[in-house]
Amino acid sequence: MPTFVYASKCSGCGDCVDICPSDIIHFDRKSRKAYNIEPDACWECFNCIKVCARQAVDVRGYADFVPMGASISVTRDDRKNVIDWNIMYRNGTRKKFSFQIRTTEWGSIKPPSEYPQAKIGEDENLSLEPEKLYVDSLPRLKVRKIEE
Amino acid sequence: MKNKTVDCDILIIGGGMAGCGAAWEARYWSRNSKIVLVDKANIDRSGAVAMGLSAINTYMGMRWGENTPEDFVNYVKNDLMGIIRDDLVYDVARHVDSSVHLFDEWGLPIMKDKNGHYLREGKWQIMIHGESYKAIIAEAAKKSASEIYNRVMITHLIKDTNNKIAGAVGFDVRDGAFYLFKSKAVIVSAGGASQIYRPRSSREGAGRTWYPHWASGSAYGLLIEAGATMTMMEARFSVPRYKDGYGPVGAWQLLLKAKQTNALGQDSFELHKEEIRRSFNGKMGYADVVPTPTNLRVLSSLMELKAGRGPIYMHTENVLTKENEELGWEDFLDMTISQALVWAGQNVDPMKEPSEILPSEPYAMGSHATENGAWASGPADLSSSFKNEERGKSYFWGYNRMSTIDGLFVAGDACGASPHKFSSGSFTEGRIAAKSAVKYLIDHGSEHPQIESNMIEQVKDNLYEPMERYNKNKHEITAGKVSPDMMWYDQGLARLQKLMDEYVAGWGSWYTTNEVMLNKALKLIKMLKEDFVNYAAAEDYHQLLRVWELWHRILTAESIVVHMLYRKETRWPGYYIRSDFPAIDDSGWRVFVNSRYDSKTQSWETFTVPVIDLVVRK
Ligand SMILES: Cc1cc2nc3c(=O)[nH]c(=O)nc-3n(C[C@H](O)[C@H](O)[C@H](O)COP(=O)(O)OP(=O)(O)OC[C@H]3O[C@@H](n4cnc5c(N)ncnc54)[C@H](O)[C@@H]3O)c2cc1C
Ligand code: SF4
Ligand code: SF4
């Protein structure tokens, strides 16, 4: 049913509820634990899985085309800036992959207001252009005269 | 219920790629104004890039002399079979490199080749480790906007008594609070539309579409209802993707050089080239341009499927090795994890066997290999010679990326006739629109929008009506969701998807339609709109979100039908065929189809605008 939550692992912290782009991870009123309220609106984007520190959320592939038994688990470390994938086939074959997710520290982006401001005039340069294009100037097109 | 009013200088609706670019640029040019970004989800992971991406599809590489914006315009024009706004496409292309250089600086890992240049996937694409792409871009937006409202769904735009934009209304999808945002400048960047057609996946899997479930057509719904002129809505498209999981094909085709064939190992396009040339070559020779336009490649696959020589295969087994395996898998894990799960679940070893490719259900969007969206003014230096008294027929009316409504700007999927922007170009177009919105504010800062307060009350009543209807009628039935007085969002959506699939060239009708079928669709959509007004019901705020998404999808769908009826030719045969006009007609129809909706009379005005070729064709 795309994502689901293991009852024994969920602490009810709400991180998954907060991140789901589809707004489909909600709390169950009675148990106060998270669950997927609308499995047929789940994109399997794995965002709820990536944020859950207790690894309580998992995916069971879509019922209409994924046979049972396979799994994909993931750990995303935003201090080391790597993501580790662990794939298990229905027949037991395993694959592991690790990828970098960012080259700088989280929070390190310099805000636009800390750059000196150019004067907003008639030219077409956007912020920090032409410097950030790494060419001398913004390309321009000679507009041909069109006979109508 | 809580009522909140937020006064802003610039309001950005949708914090996806374009919206985040807009926030950054608006702050750069205007240090003291109040820039407000509102999104129905959480911008850390919202929009089409929520999962991540494995490539940036639009990068010129001008610093290394790799491409010029002129080359890009020529390529894009061929791919769209001759109809694009050269001014808009050129404008994105000349700025896009600076956006990508910012991403690099911010920490997005971009792969490099042995010369230290960005690793090319294809001529225009570069490879990234993009799992956190959206989260990084969102960090830049958060450092730019004055306030960010996550989980607020915008339902309607608000105009003042002079027909200028005055803001927008919506509600908090968690606590239901009503929001009125007042703003002299508004940028719509609310993304494209999925789920307007019946998806190929069914039941539980219905959320697995190529464009995400949350691409609700809001940009189009909002703009159409406000009376903005729309363009090219007929050019809605379908994408060839790995069957079931919708895994991307770009890296497999371009970088790994995997071949696609029919079940007999033959190249579909080569088999049908002559036939395609006969009906679809036009004056520009589309069947012979390199690369072959996306839609013509899709057409040849469809012809093979129809002839019973399917499935179409991607021959991963001939290109994937232990050495490059990681690259292939990352492509899926970065942006379509489901495809990896399909392989694992079906025991597919891509080094040993091929995988099926299938064209998807159609989508409406403006940033990929198609161009649905609002008709917008272009940049002064390129477009100002092409003026017309009517904005809907003009290329320029003062402010770059302003829609035909004063103060209302568009970017990303929301901006029409400006295709092939992808993630980087959408961000860039957001920047273009925001700089221009700042200029608009400087020129019009002293004006005060006049909003009729009873109009706001009316919109508000209308907004919550589906919940009231539910509360009034819920005791009429014992349980469940079958009622003579209520229509839940999923019931309305099923009706929309079925009629679009069957009458408006969905996959179920082999992407084929004609005038009779389109008229039938219009009749059914009209009834669906009436039923929405009289029967839509929501039990809670989450369902209310879905109900308003449905409304935006219905308006998007209606505009598609109106446009397809108007264009009497078949221009993109891989996307749809008008069986009553089954060939391309360059002398009659190499023109834009534009439309305007009048929400009072619920009627459409449709007209054509000439395509002006600014860039000399090579
Ligand atoms: C599977 C897939 C693969 C792709 N691959 C690539 C690739 O390899 N390279 C590449 O460059 N591009 C790729 N793209 C395309 C790219 O993602 C889009 O071109 C780009 O995201 C469009 O930007 P946008 O800002 O217009 O829309 P989005 O990024 O989708 O943003 C729209 C935003 O609006 C919000 N919103 C919608 N409706 C409302 C409302 N009513 N009220 C408030 N907020 C609302 C949404 O929550 C979202 O945040 C891919 C897309 C998909 C889905
Ligand atoms: S993030 Fe994990 S622990 Fe927290 S509510 Fe969600 S499932 Fe439960
Ligand atoms: S996988 Fe994505 S869409 Fe599905 S529940 Fe999790 S966050 Fe939501």
Give a description of the structure.
The complex is a heterodimer of chains A (148) and B (618). Chain A starts with a strand and ends in a 48-residue tail after the last strand. In chain A, strands 5-6-7 form a three-stranded antiparallel sheet. Chain A has a two-stranded antiparallel sheet with strand order 1-4. Chain A has a two-stranded antiparallel sheet with strand order 2-3. Chain A is mostly beta strands and 148 residues long. Chain A is elongated. In chain A, a hairpin with a 6-residue loop joins strand 2 and strand 3 (34-36). Helices cover 7% and strands 22% of the residues of chain A. Chain A has helices at 15-19, 47-51, and strands spanning 3-5, 25-27, 34-36, 57-59, 71-77, 82-88, 94-100. In chain B, strand 18 (591-598) and strand 19 form a beta hairpin. The N and C termini of chain B lie far apart (61 Å). In chain B, strands 1, 2, 5, 6, 7, 8 and 15 form a seven-stranded mixed sheet that branches. A four-stranded antiparallel sheet of chain B has the order 14-9-18-19, covered by helices on one side. The longest helix of chain B has 26 residues, at 541-566. Classes of the chains: A mainly beta (148), B alpha/beta (618). At the A-B interface, strand 5, strand 6 and strand 7 of A face helix 1, helix 3, helix 4, helix 9 and helix 10 of B. Bound molecules: flavin-adenine dinucleotide and iron/sulfur cluster (2 copies). The site of one iron/sulfur cluster has 15 residues of chain A, from helix 1.
